[in-house]
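Customer escalation, tier 2.

The customer says the design service returned an amino acid string that "doesn't look like it belongs to this structure." They asked us to rerun it and document both sides in this ticket. The original structure tokens are below, unchanged.
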């Protein structure tokens, strides 16, 4: 997934209703009507949310006779996880280096403190 695609995914997930739709689709496929039930918004608004999720590659729709269920495309989350994991590892490495520096600083004698105590 390109950075542009990744931006679309994160942008799509920035909305709480879309995150909730994704969470509900993780439990199983659902129609737009089923997905719209808990929200106090129009069916058209929910359809627009689903369209944003589709454009980001997070959701697809299929045809099952008269039903058009929405399906979560889980492989997109694998790509997101790899991207996030890369930066998590880099952050952990920086924290380990910082911990090592702070530990060495704690082992070094503090200059100036002994002189002040002796003068008192």
């Amino acid at each position: 997934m390109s950075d542009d695609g990744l931006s679309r995914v994160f942008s799509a997930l920035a909305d709480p209703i879309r995150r909730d739709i994704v969470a509900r689709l993780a439990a199983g496929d659902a129609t737009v009507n089923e997905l719209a039930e808990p929200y106090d918004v129009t069916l058209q608004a929910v359809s627009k949310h689903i369209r944003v999720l589709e454009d980001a590659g997070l959701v697809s729709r299929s045809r099952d006779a008269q039903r058009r269920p929405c399906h979560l495309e889980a492989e997109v989350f694998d790509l997101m996880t790899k991207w996030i994991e890369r930066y998590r590892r880099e952050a952990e490495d920086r924290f380990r280096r910082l911990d090592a520096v702070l530990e060495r600083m704690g082992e070094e004698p503090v200059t100036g403190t002994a002189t002040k105590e002796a003068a008192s």
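Tier 2 assessment: The sequence is consistent with the input. DSSP finds six helices and two strands in the chain. The domain at 3-73 is CATH 1.10.10.10 (Arc Repressor Mutant, subunit A). Sent an explanation to the customer and offered a walkthrough call.
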